[in-house]
TrEMBL record:
Catalytic activity: Hydrolyzes the link between N-acetylmuramoyl residues and L-amino acid residues in certain cell-wall glycopeptides
Name of this protein: N-acetylmuramoyl-L-alanine amidase
The species this protein was found in: Chryseobacterium caseinilyticum
Domain of life, source organism: Bacteria
Enzyme class, UniProt record, top EC level: hydrolase
Signal peptide: 1-18
Domain (N-acetylmuramoyl-L-alanine amidase) ranges: 48-189
CDD domains (UniProt xref): PGRP
Length: 218
């Protein structure tokens, strides 16, 4: 009996805080190649005015997105490329670093981690240097699921325990930060209108984490 209790104790100790909250994170790292590191450092300097030795961020904000189509696999493949595809000319003029996000959440609520949450990813103009990006498989015509609402809420809760997160926004809301101290973008014209992941989804996630008192504006 004593042995059983001891083993149970060890078992409980091995559980991380993420697992304690019922959140399971599947690691699915993208290729953070030396070239991606170089381009990320260049982006941090050119766009955010930050000279750093490593492409890391101090997370203050979480930005939720949707992918506008595809599957986890197809989006993973897309983000895995270091360079932007040739079609994305507006973005390419600014940097050839490909877009990506730290997390991607499938329609069944499975959370995949594509890189460390404090590694730099290009997903939200002006705020990448302090924002963790969470992509969700879905689009305007394929609304996000209740399981995704739950998984996003759990991930937000987990990351808020890990870092000093003060803000939770949807990508479509990022414009309100444009004239704030948080906004770091050297090109005042570099801004694109976004509608992801939608107001309804944001309301549902916010309701579930309302106790965290995360802000949606500067
Ligand atoms: Zn987005």
């Amino acid at each position: 009996m004593k042995k059983v209790i001891f083993l149970l104790f060890i078992f409980v100790l091995n559980f991380s805080s993420a697992q304690n909250s019922g959140l399971k994170i599947v690691e699915k790292p993208i290729n953070y190649s030396p070239e991606r590191i170089r381009l990320s450092l260049e982006y941090l300097q050119d766009h955010h005015g930050l000279i750093q030795k490593t492409p890391t961020i101090v997370p203050k904000m979480i930005v939720l997105h949707y992918t506008a189509g595809g599957t986890v696999e197809s989006n993973f493949k897309y983000f895995n490329n270091t360079h932007l595809e040739s079609a994305r000319n507006t973005l390419k003029k600014q940097s050839t670093l490909n877009v990506s996000s730290q997390y991607i959440i499938d329609r069944d609520g499975t959370v995949y981690q594509l890189m460390e949450p404090n590694q730099f990813a290009r997903h939200t103009i002006g705020l990448n240097y302090c924002a963790i990006g969470v992509e969700n498989i879905g689009s305007k015509s394929q609304p996000l699921t209740d399981k995704q609402v739950e998984a996003n809420a759990q991930l937000v809760r987990y990351l808020t325990q890990k870092y000093k997160i003060e803000y939770l926004i949807g990508h479509s809301e990022y414009g309100v930060f444009r004239n704030s101290k948080l906004w770091k973008e050297s090109d005042p014209k570099y801004f694109t209108g976004k509608e992801d992941p939608g107001k309804e989804f944001m309301n549902k996630v916010r309701q579930k984490v309302s106790d965290l008192k995360l802000k949606d504006k500067p």
